């Protein structure tokens, strides 16, 4: 029983990190691809929107990692051994981004250093989700090979492939898309909203193109992605629902309710994750030559699973209400009178 | 440098930095809560300014602590995958609870930093207290995991298999209580002295005297109380180590030969090959008393430990001497400070007392690093004491040395920026908080 709780929380943490952490990264990515006045407007809007909640958004990654190393120790160990290098690059992104965000908001003197913090923040906002995408792709691509004969095959070939890079690019575009949809709700005027809608349209096109790139790369490398996604009823309906809601979102962008837009965008990301995840479940890591590490078989001993499950259940009694109250308290923060902080 | 040494160095570096960020991140919220309380109770705006100034420090240190902590949760696997594969399910319980505590801390910090004038003042104050309490809980839980490495529990190790795993028993291992107490008090002492020291320096420069005096008084009180308590908790820890890890005790005390009425070795330079300590002062019987509460009792020396299981002696011994020396220095300053507050109020405004505090700014954190060195190097060659060797836990991936160089560069530049940022925060105090009252209302 507790096994399902642990697996459910792992999926939940990954999804929450994609939606919340992803939108958070996306803020930096969108900033990177805008210039001048738009960038300033965006930066200000995003600071008010994510300032109070960004630390919490990144906690989901920690929750996911802890579930992995306590509940699925062999999966964690294999991942960290064969995906050492992309994990390391992702960590560099996380440390650069987290500190640059705080430094640019908490440096008492505003001078040239701001340019540096801003640049580090924007580029690391792009690199971190890129490598997260590479890692996610490499888990299922089947290139991880514990019997690999040399350094290249074991530690580079495991992640450095066209499919991984394409999924990395898609993850970046998806984050930018989530963030730009999210910002629409933070617009203070019709003119701002038009700007944000323009950003969202650009990000949507980028995400669709990168999605196509992922399928192209999979085709070239002989990864049966189309079969995973379209080969079963769940995947097929998830993708159909995502596509339909994307069309709806595109139509609603100029005048639709911001909350509806956010729900649609979140729904699409969830469906994409579901379609790919469902095809593999319970496999979490696919190894070369078809073997796989399954979430069911690699589960930690019963007492550990039970303790972890209870810790997660009881923990969420504290976390979730506090988190919802945090989001509730600071929603549309930018329209309220601002105080010095 | 070989990959094994590189992996150990990278871990030491990462933890060495993380320990500073997280100590400050978990202790400063309490200073902040006291200042905030006084502002709400008295309406004295200086306390509000102190609270706001400190909250920026907390934000900076929490963020660096959070990212360096995130890195560590990955580095455990990146560097020690074979350790984590076996240890994860056994010592993972405190980490899963810590996840909650850390999450709550991040949420509460969001409320606190962005909640000025937005919530009921006492709710806002309460969120600041939650930051401190959950930060403290995180720290205590993480120490439980380290304590388990010193005092493994909650499993049976049979023919290389880890059987009958019980994560709850593993969490409540023998070393947790004494280690958590020692680390918590150390965090308060180190942060208290560091913060008080910085404000003392500003007072010596006669800048923003009221602001820095109020801030100094709060930080110094916390630091001084902790500095007085720390030797007591150190005594508990030493007796505990003597009982559980005689090899570590022998290494930190440079106690080579098992003997009754063992002498305490003060200072000196251990010569590991010859098995003796040169240039040291020896106090007969005192080691037996400190380790076992009895001047005559036998204290196990390194000669009773198999050569392949012996920890290095030079590093733990010197680090231990440094830690105890700094602890005594802080105890002395703390006692002077209490005497001043109780009997000699004039001393509180004297420059020599401020100079003492200013000089002791880094003392607490140096002691924390030294103590951390003692416990980690003193546990070698084991990663799980008596069960798994550190050398057997390291990643099979070659080239870790480049990762070590990368981390060194990252942590050093990060520290430079953090120090630079704090310097600018302090420098800007007159501009940010010393505006005349009629302007500050605007």
Automatic annotation (TrEMBL), chain B:
GO cellular component annotations of the record: cytochrome complex; plasma membrane
Membrane-spanning intervals of the chain: 12-37, 58-80, 100-116, 123-149, 180-203, 215-233, 318-340, 352-372, 402-423
Any GO molecular function: electron transfer activity
GO biological process: aerobic electron transport chain
Organism: Hymenobacter busanensis
UniProt-annotated location(s): Cell membrane
UniProt KW keywords: Cell membrane, Electron transport, Heme, Iron, Membrane, Metal-binding, Transmembrane, Transmembrane helix, Transport
Annotated membrane topology: Multi-pass membrane protein
Protein name according to UniProt: Cytochrome ubiquinol oxidase subunit I
Domain of life: Bacteria
Family per similarity comment: Belongs to the cytochrome ubiquinol oxidase subunit 1 family.
Pfam families the UniProt entry points to: Cyt_bd_oxida_I (PF01654)
């Amino acid at each position: 029983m507790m096994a399902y709780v642990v697996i459910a929380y792992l999926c939940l943490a990954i999804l929450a990190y994609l939606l919340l952490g992803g939108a958070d990264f996306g803020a930096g990515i969108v900033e990177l691809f805008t210039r001048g006045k738009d960038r300033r407007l965006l930066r200000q809007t995003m600071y008010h929107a994510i300032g109070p909640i960004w630390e919490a958004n990144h906690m989901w990654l920690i929750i996911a990692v802890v579930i992995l190393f306590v509940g699925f120790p062999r999966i964690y160990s294999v991942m960290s051994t064969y995906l050492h290098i992309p994990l390391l690059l992702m960590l560099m992104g996380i440390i650069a981004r987290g500190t640059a965000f705080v430094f640019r908001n908490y440096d008492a003197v505003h001078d040239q250093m701001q340019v540096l913090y801003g640049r580090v923040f924007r580029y690391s906002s792009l690199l971190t989700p890129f490598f997260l995408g590479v890692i996610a792709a490499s888990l299922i691509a089947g290139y991880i090979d514990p019997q690999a004969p040399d350094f290249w095959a074991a530690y580079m070939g495991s992640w450095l492939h066209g499919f991984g890079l394409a999924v990395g690019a898609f993850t970046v575009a998806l984050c930018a898309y989530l963030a730009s949809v999210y910002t629409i709700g933070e617009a203070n005027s019709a003119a701002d909203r038009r700007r944000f809608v323009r950003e969202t349209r650009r990000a949507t096109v980028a995400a669709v193109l990168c999605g196509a790139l992922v399928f192209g790369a999979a085709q070239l490398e002989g990864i049966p992605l189309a079969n995973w996604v379209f080969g079963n009823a769940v995947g097929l309906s998830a993708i159909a629902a995502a596509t339909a809601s994307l069309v709806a979102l595109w139509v609603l962008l100029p005048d639709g309710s911001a909350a509806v837009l956010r729900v649609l965008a979140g729904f699409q990301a969830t469906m994409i994750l579901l379609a790919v995840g469902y095809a593999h479940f319970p496999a979490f890591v696919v190894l070369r030559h078809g073997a796989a590490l399954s979430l069911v078989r690699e589960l930690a001993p019963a007492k550990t699973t039970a303790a972890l499950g209870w810790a997660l259940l009881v923990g969420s009694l504290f976390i979730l209400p506090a988190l919802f109250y945090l989001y509730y308290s600071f929603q549309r923060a930018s329209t309220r009178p601002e105080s010095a902080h | 440098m070989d990959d094994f040494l590189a992996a150990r160095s990278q871990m030491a570096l990462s933890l060495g930095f993380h320990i500073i960020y997280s100590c400050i991140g978990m202790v400063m919220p309490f200073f902040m809560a006291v200042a905030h309380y006084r502002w709400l109770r008295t309406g004295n705006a200086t306390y509000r300014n102190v609270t706001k100034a400190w909250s920026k420090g907390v934000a900076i240190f929490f963020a660096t602590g959070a990212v360096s902590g995130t890195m560590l949760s990955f580095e455990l696997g990146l560097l020690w995958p074979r350790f984590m594969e076996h240890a994860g399910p056994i010592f993972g319980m405190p980490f899963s609870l810590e996840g909650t505590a850390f999450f709550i801390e991040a949420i509460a910090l969001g409320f606190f930093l962005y909640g000025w004038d937005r919530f009921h003042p006492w709710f806002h104050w309460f969120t600041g207290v939650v930051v401190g309490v959950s930060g403290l809980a995180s720290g205590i839980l993480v120490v439980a995991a380290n304590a388990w490495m010193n005092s493994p529990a909650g499993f049976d190790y049979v023919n290389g298999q880890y059987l009958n795993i019980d994560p709850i028993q593993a969490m409540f291992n023998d070393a947790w209580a004494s280690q958590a107490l020692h680390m918590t008090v150390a965090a308060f002492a180190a942060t208290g002295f560091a913060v008080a020291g910085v404000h003392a320096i500003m007072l010596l420069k006669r800048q923003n005297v009221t602001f820095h005096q109020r801030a100094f008084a709060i930080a110094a009180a916390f630091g001084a109380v902790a500095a007085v308590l720390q030797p007591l908790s150190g005594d508990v820890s030493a007796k505990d180590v003597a009982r559980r890890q005689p090899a570590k005790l022998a290494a930190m005390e440079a106690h080579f030969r098992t003997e009754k009425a063992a002498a305490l070795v003060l200072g000196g330079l251990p010569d590991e090959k010859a098995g003796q300590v040169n240039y040291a002062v020896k106090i007969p019987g005192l080691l037996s008393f400190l380790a076992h509460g009895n001047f005559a009792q036998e204290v196990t020396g390194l000669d009773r430990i198999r050569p392949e299981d012996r920890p290095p002696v030079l590093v733990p011994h010197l680090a231990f001497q440094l830690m105890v020396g700094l602890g005594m220095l802080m105890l002395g300053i703390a006692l002077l400070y209490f005497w001043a507050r109780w009997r000699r109020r004039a001393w509180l405004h004297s420059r020599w007392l401020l100079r003492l505090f200013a000089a002791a700014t880094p003392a607490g954190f140096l002691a924390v690093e030294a103590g951390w060195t003692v416990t980690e190097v003193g546990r070698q060659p084991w990663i799980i004491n008596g069960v798994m060797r550190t050398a057997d836990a390291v990643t099979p991936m070659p080239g870790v040395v480049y990762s070590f160089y990368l981390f060194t560069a990252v942590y050093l530049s990060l520290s430079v920026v953090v120090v630079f940022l704090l310097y600018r925060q302090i420098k800007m105090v007159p501009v940010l908080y010393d505006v005349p009252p009629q302007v500050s209302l605007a």
